[in-house]
Amino acid sequence: MSEFLEHYSLEKRNSFGLKVSCRYFFEATNLPDLLTYMQIGLKPDSRFMLLGEGSNILFTSDYAGTIICPALKGIDVTQENKDYVMVKARAGENWDKFVEYCVERNWSGLENLSLIPGTVGSSPVQNIGAYGVEAKDTIREVEGFFIESGEHKTFNNAECQFAYRNSIFKHELKNRFVITSVSFLLKKKPNFNIAYGPVETEFRKKPVQDLAALRQTIIEIRESKLPDPSKLGNAGSFFKNPILSNPDFSALKSLFPEIPSYPSGDQFTKIPAAWLIEQAGWKGVREGNIGTYPSQPLVIVNYGGASGKEIHDFAKKIKTSVADKFGVELEMEVNLI
Ligand SMILES: Cc1cc2nc3c(=O)[nH]c(=O)nc-3n(C[C@H](O)[C@H](O)[C@H](O)COP(=O)(O)OP(=O)(O)OC[C@H]3O[C@@H](n4cnc5c(N)ncnc54)[C@H](O)[C@@H]3O)c2cc1C
User: Is 230 annotated in the active site?
Assistant: First the structure.
C-alpha cells in the first residue's frame, strides 16, 4: 500500500547510513497513486526528489521537501522468440534480485551487473556498469511519465542518450521524468563476457561454467573488493573515471609514464580515478569517521557517525589533491543533495 509520512528518517534509505530525514516521504506501490500524487498532491512550487534505494546519493543535510519513491513491482516477459526474451521490470524491483531472476531462467546479459545495489528504475539513470558491461547494452525501452504534464513516454535506447555513467535521466530530465519500468533484451543462449580484469581466471576455477557460475564469480570478486553498505556506509565509486582527449592524455603520460589507461572511443582515453587517488596519497586514509576504503580508494566510507557535509569536505580534499598533482578534475559519480 502506498504511504505518505512526515518527518521521516532516511537513515535506512541511504547507503552511507547518514542520519538525515525529510519533511515528507511518499512511497507509491502502484502507478495510479504515483500519478495522482505527482499531479495533485505535489504543489507546483514544492521541492521534491525521486529516490530508489539511496545507494548513489549523498545527503549533506536534512531534506526540506518531499522524497518520492516509485516502489512499483512486477516482472513480465513482453516478447520472446527462440533466441531472445524481452523482460520488463517495474522501477521498484531490487536490481540484484532482478538479475538473479534472469540468471535463474538462463537469460543472459545482466549477470556481470550482479550485486550492484539499487532499483531497476535507477539502472538507466547513470547507466550502471561493471566488469565490461553497462545497462545500456541490454536496455531497449525506458517507460515513465513527465512530472509536469503527466504525459506518458517510452524512450528507446538511442533516446536515452546513454554514455559512461550518464543518460538523459541524470541531467536534462532529472526530477522531470519518473521512470516506471525498464525493458531489457536478453539472450537465451548465454554469451559469457569474461574479458574484464580477474573475471576469466576466477570463472575458469568454477566446476561448471554456466551463467549461475558467472554471476557467482562476479559476486565473489565484488565481495572481496567492496565494502558491504549494510556494514560500512558507502555509495560505491565516489568519483567517475576521468576521460581525457587523446592529446591531453599523451601530455599527462609524458609526465607520468606509469599511468594506466583504457581507450574510450577513438578520440578519448579513460584513466582509473582509483589510481589517481592512490598516487595522490589517499589510499586507505582515514580522517575521523571518514576514509577511503583500503582495498578500493575510489570508495569513500562512513566508519560511523559521519555527516554528509564531512564526507563532502573529505571528497573535496581528494579532488583538490588530484587536481594539484595531475591537473585532472575528478567529477562526482554520487548525486549530491
Ligand atoms: C557498494 C556499492 C557498489 C556500487 N557499485 C556500482 C557499480 O559497480 N556500478 C555502478 O554503475 N554503480 C554502482 N553503485 C552505485 C549505485 O548502486 C547505482 O547508481 C544504482 O543504480 C543506484 O540505485 P538506487 O535505486 O539506490 O538509486 P538512488 O541512489 O536512490 O538514486 C539515484 C538517482 O536516480 C534517480 N532516480 C531513482 N529512481 C528513479 C526513477 N524511478 N525515475 C527517475 N529517476 C530516479 C534519483 O533521483 C537519483 O538522482 C554502487 C553503490 C554501492 C553502495
Answer: no
Q: How far is the CA of 94 from the centre of ligand 1 (A)?
A: 11
Query: Which residue range(s) make up the domain with 40?
Result: 3-70
Strand order in the sheet with 286-287: 233-237, 296-302, 290-293, 286-287
- Flag whether pLDDT at 239 surpasses 90: yes
Assess whether the C-beta atom of 234 lies below 6 angstroms from ligand 1: yes
Provide the grid cell at 333. Answer: 559519480
The predicted model scores a pTM of 0.95
User: How many whole angstroms from 194 Cα to the centroid of ligand 1?
Assistant: 24
pLDDT tens, position by position, 59-78: 999 999 999 999 999 999 99
48, 111: one domain: no
CA 246 – ligand 1 centroid, Å: 30
Q: Is the CB of 109 under 6 A from ligand 1?
A: no
Give per-residue burial for 154-186: e unless 16+ CB within 10 Å, then b.
ebebeebbbebbbbbbbeebeeebbbbbbbbbb
Same domain, yes or no, for 214 and 261?
no
